[in-house]
Amino acid sequence: MSNTKHKHDKEAPKKIHPLRTFFLGSALRNERLEGELLPKSLALPIFASDPLSSVAYGPQELMMILTLGGLSFLTFAPGIAIAVALLLTVIVLSYRKVIQAYPSGGGDYEVAKSNLGRGASLTVAAALLLDYIMTVAVSIASGTDNLISAFPEIAPYRVEIAIGFLALIFAINLRGIRESGVSFAIPTYVFITTVMIMIGTGLYKFFILGQTLEATSAHYDLIPTLEFTGNPTQVAVILLLLRAFASGCSALTGIEAIANGVPAFRAPKIKNANITMALMGSIAITMFLGTTWLAITSGVKYLESEHQLGNPAQIQEFLTNPQQSLMAQIGVAVFGDNSIMFYILQAATAAVLLLAANTAFNGFPLLSSVLSKDGFAPKMLQTRGDRLVYSNGMLSLATVAGALILVYQASVSGLIQLYIIGVFTSFTVGQLGMIRHWRRGIREKTIARKEALSGLIINGLGAFMTSSVLVIVTITKFTHGAWIVFIIMPLLWILMYETKKYYTEVEKEIQLLPDMKFGSKGDYAIVLMDKLTAPQLKALDYALSSKHDRLEVVHIAVDDDAAARFEKEWTEYGIQVPLRVIPSPFRDFGAPLSEYLTEYRSMHPEQRMAVYLPKYVVGHWWEHIFHNHRANRIRKQLMYVRGAMITIVPWRLESADKIDLFSRTPMPGDARRGEPLRGRGQMRRHSGGQNKIIRMKPKENATPDDILDPNENE
Fold first, then answer.
1. Which residues is 550 bridged to in the sheet?
2. How far is CA 570 from the centre of its chain?
3. Which strands, in side-by-side order, build the sheet including 579-583?
4. What is the pLDDT of residues 53-105, one digit of tens each?
5. Residues 454-487: b if buried by 16+ CB within 10 A, e if exposed
6. Which pTM was predicted?
7. Burial environment of residue 513 by CB neighbours within 10 A (0 to 12, 13 to 18, 19 or more)
8. At what angle do helices 234-248 and 77-101 cross, to 10 degrees?
9. Closest by alpha carbon to 291, among 210, 203, 205?
10. How many CB atoms are closer than 10 A to CB 537?
11. Residue pair 640/603 in contact by the 8 Å Cβ criterion
């Protein structure tokens, strides 16, 4: 190959269908993968948009649960918020240790696999996969909620809007990590800036100017729900507070995404990932505490239902106007209703909540690719698409999340009940794995003692706190819909276990054995024919040129009269190849042939068997309607006959011969369908058309060489 041609091969871009190019962009070469890695400024909005955006619904869920006990229970909100912030701090510090010890990108899954074994690692994987799915569903539903808070008239189209946003986020992520990062960076930073301005403005108005902040729901008169008033015991009070704490812990979701995505960072990967983790933690804690304080100060009362109101006029008001989200009510209290900053806040909140799904769209494909490499998930999940992203993993995530949005009608309150359990399961198992990691390091003296001891303290505290929260979340959410999680996670665990078992069995079947012998004693070939035509004689010509030890033409007799005519024509033409007619009383082609070949192999196990099938190749999609595709159906059946090798002998019709395959614009899915690669400079179309290779005039005592002229082959 000349240098010029090699250069062309390297630089020629892959041609893509114009519509696909518009949505996804041009295909990227493997060498571009390094350029797709992320600096810290882009990694923060990509991997941390979920925990940062959760300040929009974490405090909201916390406040909503407290209102079930009546107005007095809102006094517990500051203490619960501080407890959530403390837990968030511990988890951030714990994951910085995970990043340092396991930078390969598996996160808690890698920790559990290395320290606790297969069972624990699959538990983590099932929990994380479920959590990523829930992140997408909850984030999009919550973003839709905030959009409806600003524009109540679109409330009837909640589900349609949520599905539309899901499709948009999916499409943006298909364009690649770097491009999605640029797309998502601006809304995320606008949200952070706006919330910080809101907190600062609220503090200034309250403490410096002495103004009173009042939310739109501050005037509501609350009464405890029947669920609480029917059992006003100390146990009920504790359970309600624990449930509020569990709902507030939804702000902790997505923290693990940075640990799972370390390979996507630019070098030095560990340092950049740790810095990003610290930034995310400090920003999230500040916004969570500040938002909760503003909600308490402005008197926000976010209700679960109208039954919490005792005033008939307020009930009518609640039912008439869609309830504003907690973030919207704080925006009204601080910036004023219909102010520019209020709409900026709502737009940024809706955008970042929708884009929080991006955390899952990066974490889920990375984790599923790791699982695929380990044999616990289908191999297709480790394949990168045109834009160097794991597009199959993204498609799987979007499909399942879309189904959840439809089932729960994009309801945040309904979806949130399935949330958190998965993430705290992975938190807990991961922390336990890190404890074993540090203890092994001390025992084997592979880790500095000071580093190991600090890791033991941090991860030990993290294990205690996350396991406690897991118990709380399980108890308080189980009867509110979380029981479904305890069905889904075991099913995912079993599915991954059985997938690994299947791949192990396949590997065992295909491995090379010491006593394996190669080479068969002779071979037998057949050419399937139903009439004398040029395509079928071309298949016979190809079989003859392969010089098999034994060759026969086989005719499947689905019609006795047609079979008799074929035998007569065969004799008249004088082709010196044995003809075998196999009866088929049920008009099937594949089954009688499969039975015959199976019987032949049982009598000649040492021989190879080759089957030649002629097949038409057409140039237009509509021409497929006019052909029976029998060769494809027979091929699929013969694939299950042990020892049979199938050769398709194509015959291009005139319509196909006029089409320049290598200049045609590629279509999506060409590679998966086995279409030739085009537009990369490494292929040249073979000149010349279809040559006629068969002399059909019969002659007495003809030999195969007389009938099929080898000098006229293509």
1. 524
2. 56
3. 579-583, 550-557, 523-528, 608-617, 644-652
4. 777 778 888 888 888 888 888 899 999 999 999 999 999 999 898 898 888 77
5. ebbebbbbbbebbbebbebbbebbeeeebeebee
6. 0.68
7. exposed
8. 50
9. 203
10. 22
11. no
